[in-house]
Specification:
By secondary structure, this protein is mainly α. The chain has a domain of 76 residues. 48% of the residues lie in helices and 0% in strands. It has two helices and no strands. The mean pLDDT is 75.
C-alpha cells in the first residue's frame, strides 16, 4: 500500500510540474509544447487555459491528499524511535590497561 501511494504521489508531482509549465504566462513557458502562441496546440487557446487550470487544481488536490495520506500512513506504521538526545549516555566501566612495557619513573632518583 505504501509503495503504491508513494508511486502515485511521485507521478502526480511530475505531472503537476509539467501542467504548470504548459500554462500560458507572460514569459511564454512551454506554451503548447510547440513554441509560439499556442495556436498549434491540441486545444484552442481559450480551451487550453480552462483545461490546464482545472487539471492543475485537480492534480494539486490529489498531491495534497496523497501527502497527507503518506504522512498518516508512515506515522502509524513505524514505531517511535528514541532520539539519542532523550536517552542518557551509558558508559562502560573503565578497565585498567595492562602492558608489558615498564613505565617511566615519575620522579628523578636522587644520586644519579
Amino acid at each position: 500500500m505504501e509503495t503504491v501511494l508513494l508511486v502515485v504521489y511521485l507521478l502526480v508531482a511530475i505531472f503537476l510540474v509539467a501542467v504548470i509549465l504548459m500554462q500560458r504566462s507572460s514569459g511564454g513557458a512551454l506554451n503548447g509544447l510547440g513554441g509560439g502562441d499556442g495556436t498549434s496546440s491540441i486545444f484552442s487557446a481559450r480551451g487550453t487555459g480552462n483545461f490546464l487550470t482545472r487539471l492543475t487544481a485537480i492534480l494539486a488536490t490529489v498531491f495534497f491528499l496523497a501527502a497527507i495520506a503518506l504522512s498518516l500512513l508512515y506515522k502509524s506504521a513505524t514505531p517511535r524511535q528514541v532520539s539519542i538526545l532523550e536517552t542518557p549516555a551509558q558508559s562502560a566501566p573503565v578497565q585498567p590497561v595492562e602492558s608489558d612495557t615498564p613505565s617511566a619513573p615519575s620522579a628523578p632518583i636522587a644520586g644519579e
